[in-house]
């Protein structure tokens, strides 16, 4: 069993606790929290399992790392505390751990020579002989791996378009939805996540990874952004009131340009009110989130994925990819890994072993 800790218990961390508990090759050894109010709570409670796991949350990262965990699922947000995130992850790497995380956007493509951040991480890797696998905050099977797998079903690829469509109205993340994304804020407020070059920082790595896998050279990466105001004020159950005139929807694209044309595109269509921007793509009726992948070529292949995750947990579907990589990484040499290095693997399902066929 691989001794594993989960660091952070937000949306992603709660899903990570459940995924580690369900994995037959992993043992949940500790949970680290930043909120003093969570210290001492059982991991099963924090993970929403409905049962105790006998693992009590700690706020003492140094003590937990000193115990020598083999792996760390780093689930704390890097949106507004990037310096702290790098320090935390470096501490885990120096302790010799395998670290899997979505929290360092610039390292989705760690081969990008423009990222000075790599050297700090590489020093920590060398000090502790740990491993690091960073992959997308969005499910990488829709922003990276699934488009590439679908492309292998055809004779050629002309264009790849990945699209995430999200209704935020059921979320309980006011800081992220209002401050980072700008929902409900005046249209002259430029939210951090949509400021110029930030979308490329967050999603450009996936565009570069797909280009590398397809063997094409990018001319450049471009961004496009559209925003729509709320026509009427709305009231949400979890985040309160959003006033008319404030941002109600945004549509952004990160475009990999090949031969002067956008050939690899990652697009996000986000709303705080499902009725805002009705002419833009929407999730299927009854759904709050949808992932779409379109591969243009020979033949044209389209895929749509909808999930039944609780509101706000849609991004956490990528946790299974990260947690599921830990035992594979344990058998590899220490070092830096990305989504093209780590193979897609079936979920282990021992509960099916005795099932009749």
From TrEMBL:
Q: What is this protein called?
A: Dihydrodipicolinate reductase
Naturally occurring in which organism (per UniProt): Rhodococcus maanshanensis
């Amino acid at each position: 069993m691989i001794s594993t800790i989960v660091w952070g218990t937000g949306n992603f961390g709660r899903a990570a606790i459940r995924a580690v508990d369900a994995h037959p090759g992993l043992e949940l050894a500790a949970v680290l929290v930043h909120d003093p109010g969570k210290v001492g709570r059982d991991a099963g409670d924090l993970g929403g399992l409905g049962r105790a796991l006998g693992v009590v949350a700690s706020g003492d990262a140094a003590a937990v790392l000193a115990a020598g965990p083999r792996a760390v699922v780093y689930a704390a947000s890097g949106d507004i505390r990037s310096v702290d995130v790098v320090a935390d992850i470096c501490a885990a790497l120096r302790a010799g751990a395998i670290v899997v995380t979505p929290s360092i956007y610039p390292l989705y493509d760690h081969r990008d020579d423009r990222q000075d951040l790599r050297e700090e991480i590489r020093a920590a890797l060398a000090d502790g002989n740990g491993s690091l696998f960073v992959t997308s905050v969005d499910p990488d099977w829709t922003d990276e791996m699934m488009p590439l797998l679908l492309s292998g079903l055809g004779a050629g690829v002309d264009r790849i378009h990945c699209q995430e469509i999200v209704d935020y109205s059921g979320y309980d993340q006011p800081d992220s939805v209002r401050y980072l994304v700008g929902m409900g804020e005046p249209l002259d407020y430029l939210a951090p996540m949509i400021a110029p070059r930030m979308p490329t920082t967050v999603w450009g790595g996936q565009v570069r990874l797909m280009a590398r896998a397809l063997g094409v050279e990018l001319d450049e990466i471009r961004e496009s952004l559209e925003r729509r105001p709320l026509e009427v004020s709305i009231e949400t159950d979890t985040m309160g009131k959003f006033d008319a005139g404030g941002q109600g929807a945004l549509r952004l694209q990160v475009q990999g340009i090949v031969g002067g044309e956008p050939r690899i595109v990652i697009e996000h269509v986000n709303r705080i009110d499902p009725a805002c921007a009705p002419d833009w793509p929407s999730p299927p009726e009854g759904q709050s989130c949808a992932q779409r992948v379109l591969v243009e070529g020979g033949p044209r292949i389209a895929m749509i994925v909808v999930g039944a995750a609780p509101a706000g947990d849609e991004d956490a579907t990528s946790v299974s990819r990260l947690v599921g990589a830990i035992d594979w990484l344990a058998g590899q040499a220490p070092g830096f890994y990305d989504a093209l290095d780590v193979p897609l693997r079936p979920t282990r399902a021992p509960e099916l072993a005795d099932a009749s066929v």
